[in-house]
Amino acid sequence: MKKVIVHRRHLNHPWIFSNEIIKTENPSPGEVVKVEERKKIIGTGFYNPHSLITVRLFSDKETEFSKDLLKERINAALNIRAGLGNSFRLVYSESDGLPGLIVDKYEDYFVVEINCLGMDKRKEMVFEALKELFKPEGIYEKSDENLRKLEGLAPEDKLIYGKIPEFVEIQQDGLKFLVDIVNGQKTGFFFDQRENRQRLVEFAFGEILDCFCYTGGFSLYSARKGKVLGIDSSERAIALARKNAELNNLTCDFTCDDVFKALRNLHNEKRRFDTIILDPPSFTKSKKKKFDALRGYKEINLMAMKLLNEGGVLFTSSCSYHISNEEFLFMLRDAAKDAKRNFIILNQGKQAKDHPVLLNFPESNYLKAYFLKLI
Fold first, then answer.
1. 314-340 as b/e: b if 16+ CB within 10 A
2. Which of 116, 213, 252, 319 is catalytic?
3. Which terminus of the chain has fewer Cβ atoms in its 10 Å neighbourhood, N or C?
4. What would the CATH number be for the domain defined by 169-374?
């Protein structure tokens, strides 16, 4: 096993950046290397000289990456997710000791996302491990274009094993959802908001507006607490949201529209709501566009704040890692000031249990969410 020598590294952080490396023994791209600091081994990881993140550590010892190790890590991840039913994020990359690997489990169907060169070179091992551990009906690879580009990889979107039906039916907290694995956004469903959807049930009431509703996650959870209007710009997502409401015998209104435009129109029509949900997609994939993203977040939050009835509740979130919790809070305070409205924080939300946050890997903690009440 070839060596990479570093002069410093962040305490227990699983990434080694190019500017931290003093010397290498010229390993090949994707090769497993051991990392040394002052002649002491600090870990083993995947090497990619063409990436800013040059080494992604998967162990703090000198360890070969094998199918047995892979299966051991997947089983450990499964134990952490005990009690979540049959559908959840099974593997959350570095947080589960498997850098560059995401696996979502939808009943007996698995969606795999591979976003680093070292893991990509071992993808067949990943597929075989999943087959041996779970005997799945189907495995589909849907690897993110933006992240793979940084590793010098092309996007992947294809069936790997078995079959994938048009829709897979899953259950979340007693609700049924149809998931479109092949044509849906990301892997088909967003498990990371599960605990926030559960909490919303406590606070939601009256006239409810669900913005960026996608296939109806927040809408269905809150439908028994009031009258729901869900808005999303995707016709396909709205059609599936309607199917999901029917599947659960719930009444929700869904409309396809640009959310920014829809919020402005609702304001002009003097519509008001008791509960508003803002669960937008990430507005930025890089630090460079962070301030543009913050302007977008402020615009939708300002409009939502103006649309609230007295005593109303606003759930607002951001899945943009490049925007910190402090920046998100500052934006909310700024929006509230411009809206001339006062709020109390009812609850601070977080990403769900199947997206564990690794203490020394702040990059794993990306979801920011707040439940605000107008006073």
1. bbbbbbbbbbeeebbeebbeebbeebe
2. 319
3. C
4. 3.40.50.150
